[in-house]
């Protein structure tokens, strides 16, 4: 089957995710910088999540650009990734509203790890469909960054329970 619908759907979901996340930013009451201070955790979480969603959207765009068609396995793998990405507004707000408390930071990291896992599954599905000697395989390469990102996310979730800022720093480093 053609890839146009999956590309359009993915673009739409990414746009909706980013729109939902930005709606958590409230307009401060007042006209000086001090009224912005209560929003800083929410804004920082938004920036981090915007970058992460943007990275996935860009990667998906580039991947689908290199293939001519998709199959049911690819569609389901893509939906799996979009499911975890669609939780980003919730985990982002949870972390921001709770000022980077330990459990919300760990939950956010779990979501990032699941996004990375789902992305790896999608890459495997596309490899199965298109083979190793294709433009897709050359574009993806060995995907070292993807595998390393997943390992760092898993470590970050565990390290969050030692110090929440280690987890946050690792999430920023991967982005």
Map the helices and strands:
Blueprint lengths: L3 H19 L17 H26 L6 H15 L1 H10 L4 H29 L4 H6 L3 H17 L3 H11 L1
Describe the overall structure:
By secondary structure, this protein is mostly helical. The chain has one domain (4-174). It is 76% helix and 0% strand. It is built from eight helices and no strands. Helix 5 (102-130) packs parallel to helix 8 (164-174). The longest helix has 29 residues, at 102-130. The chain is globular. The two termini are 33 Å apart. 33% of the residues are buried. The mean pLDDT is 92.
Given the helix and strand composition, which structural class is it?
A: mainly alpha
- What are the segments in which pLDDT stays under 50 over at least 5 consecutive residues? none
Overall average pLDDT:
92
| Overall tally of structural domains | 1
N-C termini distance = 33 Å
Report the β-strand fraction as a percent range.
under 5%
Classify the helix fraction into a percent range: over 70%
Order of helices and strands: HHHHHHHH
Radius of gyration: 17 Å
Number of helices: 8
Largest sheet data: none
The count of β-strands is 0
Global morphology: globular
Write a concise keyword list for the protein shown above:
175 residues, mainly alpha, 8 helices, 76% helix, globular
């Amino acid at each position: 089957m053609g890839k146009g619908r999956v590309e359009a759907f993915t673009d739409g979901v990414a746009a909706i995710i980013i729109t939902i996340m930005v709606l958590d930013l409230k307009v401060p009451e007042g006209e000086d910088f001090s009224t912005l201070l209560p929003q800083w955790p929410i804004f920082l979480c938004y920036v981090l999540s915007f970058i992460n969603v943007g990275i996935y959207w860009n990667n998906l765009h580039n991947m689908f650009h290199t293939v001519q068609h998709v199959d049911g396995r690819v569609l389901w793998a893509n939906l799996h990734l979009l499911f975890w990405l669609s939780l980003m507004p919730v985990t982002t707000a949870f972390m921001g509203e709770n000022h980077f408390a330990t459990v919300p930071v760990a939950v956010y990291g779990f979501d990032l790890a699941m996004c990375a896992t789902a992305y790896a599954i999608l890459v495997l599905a596309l490899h199965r469909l298109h083979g190793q000697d294709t433009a897709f395989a050359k574009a993806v390469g060995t995907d070292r960054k993807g595998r390393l990102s997943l390992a760092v996310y898993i470590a970050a979730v565990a390290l969050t329970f030692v110090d929440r800022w280690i987890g946050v720093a690792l999430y920023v480093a991967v982005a």
